[in-house]
Specification:
Helices cover about 0% and strands about 55% of the residues. It is mostly beta strands and about 70 residues long. The relative contact order is 0.37.
Length: about 70
């Protein structure tokens, strides 16, 4: 949600089903890392945003794995 605070652990390995913070072509995003067949994807939890296939031409750096979310009420 907007204005949530994410706790990110850079020591955890980014494996399938983990939510990751990554830089895609210089822009930060938060997505779920998934694998379908032989393709890795960054899956959006919000249906308003597209899933992103991880391809060679994509400049991507995974910064860390989200471990907790602080959500204001």
């Amino acid at each position: 949600h907007h204005n949530d605070i994410l706790i990110v652990d850079r020591s955890i390995e980014a494996t399938p089903s983990k939510i990751v913070v990554c830089a895609l072509n210089g822009e930060l995003t938060v997505k779920r890392l998934i694998r379908k067949a032989d393709t890795w994807w960054l899956q959006a939890e919000n249906p308003a945003y597209p899933n992103i296939p991880i391809q060679d031409e994509l400049e991507m750096v995974i910064w860390g794995v989200v471990t907790n979310v602080i959500h204001s009420v």
